[in-house]
Amino acid sequence: MAGTVEQKLAALGITLEAPRTPVANYVGFVRTGNLLFVSGQVCATSDGKLIARGKLGAGVTLEQGVAAARGCAVNLLTQVKAALGDLDKVARVVRLSGFVNSTPDFLDGPKVLNGASDLMVNVFGDKGRHARTTVGVAVLPSDAAVEVEGIFEVA
Amino acid sequence: MAGTVEQKLAALGITLEAPRTPVANYVGFVRTGNLLFVSGQVCATSDGKLIARGKLGAGVTLEQGVAAARGCAVNLLTQVKAALGDLDKVARVVRLSGFVNSTPDFLDGPKVLNGASDLMVNVFGDKGRHARTTVGVAVLPSDAAVEVEGIFEVA
Amino acid sequence: MAGTVEQKLAALGITLEAPRTPVANYVGFVRTGNLLFVSGQVCATSDGKLIARGKLGAGVTLEQGVAAARGCAVNLLTQVKAALGDLDKVARVVRLSGFVNSTPDFLDGPKVLNGASDLMVNVFGDKGRHARTTVGVAVLPSDAAVEVEGIFEVA
Asked: What is the CATH number of domain A38-154?
């Protein structure tokens, strides 16, 4: 039976698929003690298609960027579920680091990242309130519009 | 009565104000075990005005960048004080990650970040010596010249 | 006598020199509990010469980028050895964060970072499989082509 967090995801229309396996010598997550470090997740759907491709400030709209950041958050949760089996075992979302594929004059990275932050709080409640860092980078893998990495505390 | 670290800050002319509350679904810091993760802090004063705006390599001077990085460090300490009540409870500044809003040919990011590193060592002594990563990014929120995030160990 | 990990490094023709001391108020690593945070390492040899200088997408080839990332990994291991005395004390490579000095249209950052990831797995085996984040940044210190920071779990 799905736990509380997955029920909230389902109510938002989000089902977690099995995570995509990295095609290189790294993994989706590493747990050390009570901390779970999740690899940077780009804004791809479970079939590998990018939700938004290109740069904020040059073709990708703010609305598309927010949806992309939300997709990154879904991918983080997919990894967390693979790690823990049950998202209810998350004691706290510790930190999200958000990287926005940006032109040098795009100043609204934080608004983009809210797509990830809002999802975390929607499904985890106060345990979803995290430390956050947002920067605008020159480019991201496969020209993804957004990439987010996460650190989670396990109960 | 102010602790040792705050006395050293006061001797440098620095008073810590209450931290600014993020205007979104994230928070200024999260503590997990003995580790305190502080959100990326841009170079703004306590009233929200940027100490330096724009890019190193295009208008923002090295001297202004150093002052901006120092301002980021002050903002990190503001969050740490809000988290712990007393900066003397910091056992170690573990890591600072510095992001410099840079043109593609600005090579002196580390000199900029020294503005943050020097303040940490000035007020914490050897406990202030941290691991550090410095990168030059395409852009930062609100066109801030510098952003620094931090991890602190709590005694 | 060299431990298992250093023997594997030697078989790859890699000898770890003493780490270079940062010329500022930060250090090469900080240990807190069982976690070792290593400062961002640029792709320099032990005598300070860059393995690759400039941007992927503008002069630095993918092959040169891979060699540069591998060099960053060697520098991380140099710091780990300085911290622990013996690389066999590493229980897990927890996370590598890779920053690639990129033009805005260079999309193969992950292939570059494989130079670091492959070395970790070659010498640590499954303990070397890490979480990873790769982003393309506007510029790096001294125009280094690649910079990698790491978190390690100590046995």
From this structure: 3.30.1330.40
Q: How far apart are CA B74 and CA B44, in angstroms?
A: 10
Give the residue on C whose Cα is nearest the Cα of A102. Answer: C104
Q: Which residue of B has its CA nearest to A132?
A: B39
Instruction: Give the residue from B102, B112, B133, B137 with the most C CB atoms within 10 Å of its CB, the best one to mutate.
Output: B133
- B1, pLDDT greater than 70: no
Q: Looking at domain C4-12+27-154, what is its CATH homologous superfamily?
A: RutC-like (3.30.1330.40)
| B50 closest CA partner among B134, B145, B135 | B145
Q: Could you tell me the pTM of the whole model?
A: 0.97
Q: Does C4 touch chain B (CB under 8 A)?
A: no
| Cβ–Cβ below 8 Å for B24 and A102 | no
- Give the residue on C whose Cα is nearest the Cα of B116: C25
pLDDT tens for residues B3-17? 999 999 999 999 999
Are B139 and A105 inside 8 Å of each other by CB? yes
**Complex ipTM value:** 0.96
Q: How many alpha carbons fall within 13 Å on the CB side of residue C135?
A: 32
For B108-150, the pLDDT digits (tens) are 999 999 999 999 999 999 999 999 999 999 999 999 999 999 9
* pLDDT interval class at A137 (50, 70, 90): very high
CATH code for the part of the protein at B4-16+35-154:
3.30.1330.40
CB contact under 8 A, A104 and C131: no
